[in-house]
Design brief:
The complex is a heterotrimer of chains A (139), B (148) and C (361). Chain A is mainly β and 139 residues long. Helices cover 9% and strands 42% of the residues of chain A. Chain A contains one helix and eleven strands, in the order E-E-H-E-E-E-E-E-E-E-E-E. In chain C, 35% of the residues lie in helices and 20% in strands. Chain C has a nine-stranded mixed sheet, sandwiched between helices. The radius of gyration of chain C is 19 Å and the shape is globular. The chains are: A mainly beta (139), B mainly beta (148), C alpha/beta (361).
Chain lengths: 139, 148, 361
Amino acid sequence: MWSKKGRIEDLIFWKGNMEVEAYEYDEGNAGKKFIEGIKEGKFYGIKCSSGKVYVPPRDYCPEDMTEGNYVELTEPYLDLLTEVREDSYGNKLEKPIKVGIIRFLNAKGGIIVRVEGDAKEGDKVKVIKWEWPLVVGKA
Amino acid sequence: MIRYVPKAKYSYSAGQAQSVFLNGLKEKKILGTVCNKCKKVYVPPKMYCEECFKPTDGWVELKDEGIVHTAIASFVSWTRDRLEEPIISGTIKLYGSERDYVFPGMFHRICTTYDKVRDMSIIGAKVKAVWNEKRVGSIEDIQCFKEV
Amino acid sequence: MKVAIVGMGWYGFRPSTPEVSFREMVFEAASRAYAEANLDPRKDVDTFISSQEDFWEGISIADEFAPDQIGGYLRPTFTVTGDGVQGILHGIMHIKSGISKVTAVEAHSKASDILTIGDIVEFAMDPIFLRPAAPPNFHFLAALEAKAYQRRTGMTEEDMAEIVSIEKRNGFGNPRASYAANLNVSDILSHEKVAEPLRRPDIADFVDGAVVVVLASEDIARSLTDDPIWVEASTFTETNYPGYAELGEAGYLRGAYSQISKRKFDGYFVDDRYSFKLLEHLGVFKADPLALLREGQLGEGGSAPTNVFGGLLSEGVPLEAAGLTLALEAREYLRKGYSSAVVGSWRGVPTYTGMVLSMWR
Ligand SMILES: [Zn+2]
């Protein structure tokens, strides 16, 4: 454009929202099994014909698209941990939030969880509250 | 089920063309841009001619009247409520264009009766903008286009 | 048959661009690209590609808003929901399949128009396994990746600060580097952590900007210029949902690179929207990037010149235009007389999608 207005007073900014109200996501079979398992105090993964175990479970095995079998997983450990002190917009959080990934030996994948207390990466963890999302602490 | 309410808020930059246009509405003016090469007039305006791919050359003021190109009556509101009285809206071909299907125009409410939409007699009717007393630089500064 | 870049144009690359709508911004970039290519889009361009995502635009079915500003009015225009390098990849397919001789590709960012950008990124997360557990800061996913990368390589916070310091200085002299700055390592380490181990300076800000690339078939390219830049592109999405099995290994970029013809590169232009990602992404192309950093080999004249014009840490993150921004840097580098460069692009948190653009002359 060979000419442009630069004075902010001459320019208009229109406030608006994307027309999205709310979503209700179906967890799918594997997701339901996983979340129901959490409520019963159990971790479920899926074992595929290849012998590989995936967590969280999925409705199909990624390597061959067949259905696997649910298996219970035990003894989670904290693999990765971060402490978040600001929100996405740079506002300081009232209290830092610890978030991590717990994993299981011999299972591929992990679960994003909130962490309480002084659990460190590599520590075995126990679930403090069997609710989704999970809160864990040092075992 | 996992329920989630997204927060998707924006402050859309109107930019050069639409800012001048919206500010013009505040002054009861319908402003368009013109391409001197192909003579096309843009309402709502663009700073570039989409046919020639060059910047448009200047501004023109159009009359706030035109003819109804097409119209519909809706018994459902924006928020999906059932309406007793339909909202009638359509495209208004503003004067100043010689082409049938490419013209400076506006999509807006039309102040007329449901019957005239149903029997199609509103199409081709001459209409004129009804302006709000209080204008803020919005497409809503025009209440509707009313038959004259 | 080869495909070449015969023109590039850009506009913006400022924290905000109040003077233009996103369409006007793209028109500006397109005008510059066509002027450089010496082509008239209304006559000489066969297909048009827009790389975009509805929630970045704030418009559902934003494809409807794509054609006019790149010259695609009443012409074949289509959109790619992804990074501009994915747009180039589709453009290459148009040309190689014979449906087009000349294709224009655009990507843009009006990040400053998005009032709730953090929420939009959160909206991209897995709704069952990730969103409910995510803290109110999407950078946490990058922080976990950084931790994994640290553990795997021994990278320290000082190394990360060193990257930021180098990149912010590299941006001086780059007209698109709105975030270039003179920061030394101790300045950076004096900042508080946003999400362990990331500090504010480790994280690139968003930026507004538009980039347009004109691609041409070999014969057209040779008729237009004596010095075409040949390109090859690829993309790959790593199966990391749900479970985040392999963090810090840039499997998405390795997957993309595995599809590209191997050649020697004179320069590397990789997504560094987080400082450590510079090393993680460079590691796809060069062994032991941490040692290269510590030995001072990442500058021009070193054994792995990387983001020598400042990368995204200096230029900002222009949403889906990030890959094309790196491509602009790579082209600038080739113009200095080098014969090859590679772009390693990423769609950012929370994606595991990477793109490679190989450029040579
Ligand atoms: Zn024209």
